[in-house]
Amino acid sequence: MMPEVKVMFKKLLLSLIMSFQAAMNIGRRGIHSLHTVNKVPKNLLEEGQNRVVEASLTLVREQAKLKGELVRAFGGAKATSALLGVPLGHNSSFLQGPAFAPPLIREAIWCGSTNSTTEEGVVLDDPRVLADVGDLPVQELRDCGIDDDRLMNIVSESVKLVMEQDPLRPLVLGGDHSISYPVVRAVSEKLGGPVDVLHLDAHPDIYDRFEGNKYSHASSFARIMEGGYARRLLQVGLRSINSEGREQGKRFGVEQYEMRTFSKDRHFLENLKLGEGVKGVYISIDVDCLDPAFAHGVSHFEPGGLSFRDVLNILHNLQGELVAADVVEFNPQRDTADGMTAMVAAKLVRELTAKMSK
């Protein structure tokens, strides 16, 4: 290797290490504050927290209001997908990189390497098709000592604020999979009843309290089913499931489709009809439903997964009214240098947008 190339390589490696360390320090900041805020008078802390919560919700409220007004002014839209970022990663049991995903997914959506038309012919740069209400400032909320009970309520409230602005429908960018619980809860409560949930994932995420955390990304669907927010829960792509996952599935009447039987189940899964008799369909896509060959940038590598085309076939052929969705668990810290998984997550968002907007 030429000396100048070695120097450039060392500089690049050092830059990457420093960026990673900075990201991890940011991720720990809120946790550190939880240990230090006890020194602050309780009333002072509560008043400050309330102001930060109100400011955070005001940001989402006003963004949603503006985008809703613009869509209504253009006219002709019955449903518009509205991106809402929830950059939360601390409920992950392994790596917290998904907290940094939303801006990179947005960047990839509008990457100049492709055009703005989805496979089904929907043009995304029509503002009546895709709106963006920004990110909920999760780290700032945690940094002032907001605990997870309250944080989950704030996530739910932010989703409801988006849904108040007809015809916006939330398309949420994670973040780890713990966000699906407050999002599905908000959708169900706002619509006045349960939804059918299609969940694509390598894992069932249905532990009662994984590692003692009721809000763990591995427990989100236990909370959803306990709350009665889903009538049917179909889990597709499973290939890392233990006895508790199966027992919990039976307890809640979950329809679990494992990869070992996918060839047998394919026809059924590619011709789903959901949402009849309930308030619609919710789709939750964990990027690790895909085989790592298609999506390297995830926290949990589980070989033997779905191909990208498998996922698109399921989405494109689904019959039902899609009322909300999320794309979660993209971990930029494990992505390839060219951001391939960001493009994968972005295309999932694009195709979900085409399914939901009309």
Could you characterize what this model shows?
- This protein is an alpha/beta fold.
- The protein is built from 11 helices and 8 strands.
- It has an 8-stranded parallel sheet, sandwiched between helices.
- Strand 4, helix 7 and strand 5 form a beta-alpha-beta unit.
- The longest helix has 34 residues.
- The N and C termini lie far apart (55 Å).
Q: Helix count, per DSSP?
A: 11
Helix coverage percent: 40-55%
Mean pLDDT: 92
Largest sheet: 8 strands, parallel
- Unreliable residue stretches: 26-32
- What is the multimeric organization of the chains shown? single chain
Strand order of the largest sheet: 2-1-3-8-7-4-5-6
Q: How many strand units? A: 8
What is the rounded Rg?
A: 20 Å
In percent, how much strand structure appears in the residues? 5-15%
Structural class: alpha/beta
- Global geometry: globular
Order of helices and strands, N to C?
HHEHEHHEHEHEHEHEHEH
- First CA to last CA: what distance? 55 Å
